[in-house]
């Protein structure tokens, strides 16, 4: 029998995992909260830093390192783990599309953990918070009144749900029992640079990544409609079934947006499912003109996938799948074994069971951190922050154009700016800036040339941060001689 630790001490009522001394635990928790808020207040002074070489050894759960009690564990949390985050809370983190986090969400996460609700279903308060959150999301989307939505871990999971609904509409709900073995080959149309989650979804669904048909982009890096039409016609002539066309609202690589109205028109004419990959770009819906117009036509989609943990800065992880037809959505995923049979009243009641709309029965209370953010900060503040990021990306583009050692590979259209360098190794320059704490850029390849890439989704970023970051890049390029 394993030794009994302090937190699992034997009492007259059996073993328990609660603290032995609640007063001591309360003191430790208050200190932990203060340390977390102090870190968030100091975000501007805390860029990414490399983790210690011996961190793996420190984190190992060896026999002598476990059961040490809450106080010592919380010290490890704040001193040995928290300093070595991804760095995306810092205003000069541009490299990947990672949200910056929100202080108010710390409180929401604390309450969610305290409630420990399973939001797969049943009739309890968390479900009403999720209903309100999804109603707000669908209102922003512009989808029709009969649309529905579900919160997910992110756009990758949301894409699986969306394409599964597309499959069922195309081939019927009995496919859930029969499987896909007897189906004809399918094609899903994407443009160059579309996110890898589309291929992964098709792999999981059994169609394989080979079902992807990549179509060309035009001079503005949007899906080329002529290429799309030719691809669909060619596939149909070969006996392939067009399953879905994926429009991109905010390319990861370039920030470009497809002409969603034009794709919607084509999908309506050809009766093909129209899915919009809007992982971060969905939130241009909240921006001022002209950026708001980038997502015109998205409301005509059959499905939309997006993330809250990117441009909205909701803590990881949190995404959403929206589907235009609630009945189709429900019939695609509902499956109730006897032990989940609906009650007329009591905890087993309720009209909204999210397990009927997705893959998970056990679901965390993701909605609370969204609801709290919208409730406390307000849609207008998010709109202003998102608009600021677009203006900052435009400023970065102007500074690159004016530089004698940098070059703009394409016109900035939203919140992503890429830059060629006149000399030096792009990867080494990016690493140097990351290690110095000056700025975090990632690298990519545009038109066959390597370049630095900046995606602006941080509500803490200022115009001065942009100027300092570009100056740092220029200096790094000059130093590379």
Could you list some keywords that capture this structure?
alpha/beta; disordered N terminus; 481 residues; Aspartate Aminotransferase, domain 2; 7-stranded mixed β-sheet; Aspartate Aminotransferase, domain 1; single chain; 3 domains
Give a description of the structure.
- This protein is an alpha/beta fold.
- 40% of the residues lie in helices and 13% in strands.
- It contains 15 helices and 13 strands.
- It has a seven-stranded mixed beta sheet with strand order 3-9-8-7-6-4-5, sandwiched between helices. It has a four-stranded antiparallel beta sheet with strand order 10-11-13-12.
- The N and C termini lie far apart (65 Å).
- The relative contact order is 0.14.
- The N terminus is likely disordered.
Backbone CA Rg:
25 Å
CATH A-level architecture of the largest domain: 3-Layer(aba) Sandwich
- β-sheet strand percentage: 5-15%
Mean pLDDT rating: 93
Number of strands: 13
Order of helices and strands: EEHHHHHEHHEHEHEHEEEHHHEEHEEH
What profile does the largest beta sheet have? Answer: 7 strands, mixed
Tell me the strand order in the biggest sheet. 3-9-8-7-6-4-5
Poorly predicted ranges (pLDDT <50, ≥5 residues)? Answer: 1-10
Envelope shape: globular
Give the helix level as a range of percent.
25-40%
* SS summary, helix count: 15
Briefly note the structural class of the backbone: alpha/beta
* CATH class type of the largest domain: Alpha Beta
User: What is the domain total for the residues?
Assistant: 3
